[in-house]
Amino acid sequence: DDSSSPSIDAAARKQRNIAVMTSGGDAPGMNANVRAIVRSAINKNCRVFAVHEGYSGLVNGGPEYIREMKWVDVRGWLNMGGTNIGTARCKEFRERWGRLKACKNMIEAGIDALIVCGGDGSLTGADLFRAEWPDLIKELLDKKDITEETYHTYKHLNICGTVGSIDNDMSGTDATIGAFSSLDRICHAIDYIDATANSHQRAFVIEVMGRHCGWLALMAAIATSADYVFIPEKPTSVDEWSDHMCEAVSQHRARGKRKTIVVVAEGAISSNLTPITCEDVKKVLVDRLGLDTRVTTLGHVQRGGPAVAFDRFLATLQGVAAVDAVLEGTPETPSPMIGIAENKIVRRTLVDAVKLTKSVAKAIEDKDFEKAISLRDSEFHEHLKYLIAMNIADFREPSLPVEKRKNFAIINVGAPAGGMNSATYAFANYCMSRGHVPYAIYNGFSGLARHESIRTIDWLNIENWNSLGGSEIGTNRTTPEEADLGLVAYYFEKYQLDGLVVVGGFEALESVSQLEASRESYPSLRIPIVLIPATISNNVPGTEYSLGSDTCLNKLVEYCDIIGQSASATRNRCFVVECQGGNCGYMATMAQLCAGAECSYVPEEGISLEQLETDIQTLKAGYASDKGRNHTGRILIKSEKASKALSTEVIGQMISLESEGRFDSRTAIPGHVQQGGIPSPIDRTRATRFAIKAVEFMEEKWSVVHNAEDEIGEFEDSDEVSATAAVLGIERSHVKFRSVKTIWNNETSHGTRMRREIFWEDIRDIADMLVGRVKI
Ligand code: ATP
């Protein structure tokens, strides 16, 4: 983090005064959001003010509450939990007189745009404030509290919302800032509780936050393979839920599971809207099943601690987008809210998002639960559907008729990546719920060809796989051609496989491409094949997200936080951190953004001596301006393949030499730590969603590829048929199945073994801008 702001081209734009505020419950990532807003606003030649203590700060006003922020004021904020500018629940702002005071205070401070980071309540307040603004300011004029000139200057309030809330309860965005950090804390806690529950064969009823929204509970239940979940959007009658829960739990126990986990959202209700408490649930488990049952309320632990990488990314990109939005806003444009759809930052209309959010609450109040669910985002919807499908699988007849049941297999290819085991778990469970037979191919294609290592999956064996890193079924880089394509096809024939899910990175893509191209020669390969990308490098063509990349990024960012602390404590040290990622600079770029590193060097750009020289000069200037205060560790990130000539070690030595004794530099190489250990909740839940989508795809496409034979039995390839070998990826705001053939032929750089198009260029610019390396 540089301590000086980038030079300001003062004449370039009309200077605006932007205020930023955090409101409602604190959420990890709020500080990252404020940091991005402050620096992005300064980068765009604006002055920026922090309103302290949420709406109370606006209502109270004055320099105590509304303070200008400078570039250095937000140094080191990226990884801090909570919100450094304070937040509050403010009754006065709910009253018109409170908002009138807020209006006057804002004008007195010279503020002409306001960015509010908060949950649905805070953004409802912001929307109301915007709608009332013309009236409020007119009243101030009529009362002669402001002059005519001031009235005209501030006639239009420019407002923008960034959604910060651990509940993820706002419509119009897939994720709110803080929600995934909170989910991370919950999953860790449940993983810990699992161990003790298993030891004593106990049941645990775990209460998680979510007064009106069951997102945290639902996602935690999926990520930890809980036995049952209670959320406000899906209530049932008391008799019904007791029966369902007991049936599910006793089925799991009958299959040999030693523990029981039930997750209860704070706002869980039964269909007559009476709350379901943990004690209610415990009583049923004790009375009806005789289980030794404990209740754990996770409470405020869920709000605490540093933001996970995704929240830093989300908060940072939203902050930058919010500043752009207020600068582009005109009196005619409706106030925006910044959200995210899959992998793309989106601008929504605040009033619509608020309206939609309210309609969920209204639907619950009206007991129209179907509607409440349908109004939630599609991801929520899908997860709930899948969880129900997988839970009932154990005690009801599978959902498909016998003639539609198939043999589906899963295989891991390439290096291990977080989420591989979750994919196997969800694949097998969902297959069982449908009546398919799930097979696992162990130790990749070479395992199959050499040792016939293929077996059906047993439910009890995989029961705890969601929280395991690595690949339990084993993985390696061997492709079918290297292993022996003929033998691979022979075993597909022998086991009568009707579909294959391949989970892995670039070698996995290559494998699927080989299988697809061999369909003409080997009839047993004429089955749907789905690639679920999984690699920490996130370099697979056809997707912007691979399983494991989130787990890896979290490990890297955590590592940089620790290294940064050491650098900061020793006052005059910087670190060059080397990160993995093959020929792809995605991971280095994201680590720079999420750890606030000074720069990142990536293979796509290489390292020029000129750039290195500039970066070292910037470091020198930074250390010189510290003058014994404001120490933050300075970190440079380098992809291992960024340069053939300049190794991490050499760069470290050059920095030390050039520093002329003012500071030193050390290198740090996290190496295989980046594979991550326990997978992150994002990787676990996405793996679940993708694995189930893959099974649905195979069910749907089986007949397409199976019927691709003409009258004399020859294989007829067509676009429709070749599209049955597909990559399941995320491109911008969509989850898509796309033909492997198209991707392999048109979008793959075979020499560097990665996708051709770089989708993270904008992120590099933002990461550089936020440390003052460039102006955008
Ligand atoms: P969280 O999701 O963490 O609960 P939130 O933003 O929903 O965050 P709330 O307590 O609902 O939290 O709202 C925060 C503040 O926003 C309130 O204390 C109040 O000052 C303001 N606010 C909320 N709703 C309104 C409203 N309808 N009108 C005016 N102001 C409101």
Automatic annotation (TrEMBL):
Reaction(s) this enzyme catalyzes, per UniProt: beta-D-fructose 6-phosphate + ATP = beta-D-fructose 1,6-bisphosphate + ADP + H(+)
Subcellular location field: Cytoplasm
Binding-site list for substrate: S165, I166, D167, R202, M209, G210, R211, E266, R294, H300, V301, Q302, R303
Residues involved in Mg(2+) binding: D120
Positions with a binding annotation for ATP: G25, R89, C90, G119, D120, G121, S122
BP-aspect Gene Ontology terms: canonical glycolysis; fructose 1,6-bisphosphate metabolic process; fructose 6-phosphate metabolic process; intracellular chemical homeostasis
Chain positions recorded as beta-D-fructose 2,6-bisphosphate binding sites: 477, 535-539, 573, 580-582, 640, 666, 672-675, 753
GO molecular function annotation: 6-phosphofructokinase activity; AMP binding; ATP binding; fructose-6-phosphate binding; identical protein binding; metal ion binding; monosaccharide binding
Activity regulation info: Allosterically activated by ADP, AMP, or fructose 2,6-bisphosphate, and allosterically inhibited by ATP or citrate.
Residue segments, region Interdomain linker: 393-406
Family assignment from sequence similarity: Belongs to the phosphofructokinase type A (PFKA) family. ATP-dependent PFK group I subfamily. Eukaryotic two domain clade "E" sub-subfamily.
Protein name as catalogued: ATP-dependent 6-phosphofructokinase
